[in-house]
Amino acid sequence: MPVAIEIEARDDEARAGILRTPHGAVPTPTFMPVGTKGTVKGLTPGDLRSVGTGIVLGNTYHLYLRPGVDLVQKAGGLRGFTSWEGPMLTDSGGYQVFSLAHRRKISEEGVRFSSVYDGSSHFFTPELTTKVQEVLGADIAMVLDECPPANASREYHADSLLRTARWAKRCKETHSREDQALFGIVQGGLHPDLRKESLERTVELNFPGYAVGGLSVGEPREEMLQMLSLVASRLPADKPRYFMGIGDPVGILQVIALGVDMFDCVLPTRLARHGTALTNDGRINLKNAPYRRDLRPLDPECSCEACKGYSRAYLSHLVRENELLAHRLVTLHNVHFTSELCGRARAAIVEGRYREFIEAWILRYAGGRPLDVAR
Amino acid sequence: MPVAIEIEARDDEARAGILRTPHGAVPTPTFMPVGTKGTVKGLTPGDLRSVGTGIVLGNTYHLYLRPGVDLVQKAGGLRGFTSWEGPMLTDSGGYQVFSLAHRRKISEEGVRFSSVYDGSSHFFTPELTTKVQEVLGADIAMVLDECPPANASREYHADSLLRTARWAKRCKETHSREDQALFGIVQGGLHPDLRKESLERTVELNFPGYAVGGLSVGEPREEMLQMLSLVASRLPADKPRYFMGIGDPVGILQVIALGVDMFDCVLPTRLARHGTALTNDGRINLKNAPYRRDLRPLDPECSCEACKGYSRAYLSHLVRENELLAHRLVTLHNVHFTSELCGRARAAIVEGRYREFIEAWILRYAGGRPLDVAR
Fold first, then answer.
1. B274 touches chain A (CB under 8 A)
2. Tens digit of pLDDT for each residue in A327-349?
3. Number of Cβ within a 10 Å radius of residue A356
4. Is A91 among the catalytic positions?
5. End-to-end CA distance of chain A
6. ipTM
7. What is the domain partition of chain B in residue ranges?
């Protein structure tokens, strides 16, 4: 198996491990910053290493459309193209097809959609997205799944999960790259029985790792956690578990508590570009007046380049003037913050004090305010 | 004198020296990247050091309006605010008042203008801009000058240079910071006799350094060089000479040939944000089709981070997608390229082969095309 996880410690359901990949080992739980178009916006691979990023996610949908797979192949795959030499994961493009495309038509064969860039028509099949991901060459590829809208009917979800399972089988049959692992994805909406059915149909295909998809898409956080708990407790304990699309600090700690090893989200980087920094005392919106003259660092406990070198006042000035350096430095900080949070969670799991850690951490972060549950 | 130049070598009129400042020594000739609003767009101070920047320019006009002098003062001056610890120069804001403000009214006392940010009314006097620059705390401050439009009448230029000389005197009388040098500015448009008069009236005030202003504002390059030659040959040989506003490689080499030690321009950084890179074989517009699939570095002879880590194809992709990292990496390259060009010019001067160097360099850079004279 090119990708495997060694679980070093458990604390209730939470797991601390090492994800082994052909391009390096990653301590888990781990946050994967999203390199949408072949770049984690504003950061170099060197920056990512400096803030403790272990594995980066690439978006097949975007890269397939721009700059195109042939060019990435010519450049030696996504790693050669972007100069990120560490572990990578690519999604299948399924999520983007279902969240970005205005026009799409699903059939048993695949999904036809219009490009978000120029409206041109494209057709993704399980075979195509698998082959494309083989060319992109990440350590981990994902099956093509359908991610139905949160408000789709139960009947729709029931049909959809069966199609997703059939697609998963086709992806697996197509996949041949031996230095790349293909992960399955569990869907099923917010219906416990459908989640269980999707889980069984995915696990019986015996993937080297499993993702939980279709959650954190607008449902109440409590429901999300119930579904995740149901699925995670039934996933093979010896395989990596990837929760798709969570990046707020509280949510990260909550899914870790349920046994998740990996997760991705654009939230930390997107917030940064809107001038919002994550700190141990909650979010800071640098556009707000109090930070204009605040000479403290973003987070006095943080050791990142942004916190070591600059004040909130300076960063607030850069944010107000929409300066490139604002986006860069706050992004750097937010990714560092999120990586470090995972590292602290890991240490707490290893030391058997995860429950205390998460309670104390959330209490401080939320500061008595309602929990921060935005995606 | 807080700021002085030691001339190490001459080759005809060209000079190689060391500019001594309270915050470090800078080999000259030197290009000063422009940190308009307290940041060289997209780069950190560490980046600037890594590409060989010796001295950074700050814009008094912008910093006075945003974030305001009181905040910069509270942060320990521009150096404390921005974390750039090396030598700095601030302009007086005069150029921006005359180039950016839609409404302005000049009197003997000073100039009233509307803020480019919010239209609010402000009044710059020689005394105010001098005091503001003392608070900003750069190693070199500039007198408040009027930079008349290129098409102003001879009579206007004649009056204006006299007012600029009177303002220079008031700046000098106001200036009291002992760890900061105040430079005078020679104006006079494209009129040789007015240039000489402005020169005499400025030099008689005995500044520790002199700038040549009001050139490279749209006039033919040949005329610019004639005016500069006239002025430079009459400036005190033992004082630093600063040509305001030149940044294209050919222009830089040409003003160095006439004895200029320092120069600034937004061109290298602005070009970068529009996707154009400077190379030894001329400019490259990364939006152009040939670079889409070009896996070579921007400039194979360049050792900057952008050239060592990334291909033209990758950078072209980032430019097309308007990614933050495009602006950052191409800016880094263009500043590195310009700094290195100054270093090569310096070596050629020291070795007494500047004429051969400049001829060979321009021949290759221009590649038989008409000389690149855009500002």
1. no
2. 999 999 999 999 999 999 999 99
3. 11
4. yes
5. 33
6. 0.96
7. 4-265, 272-366
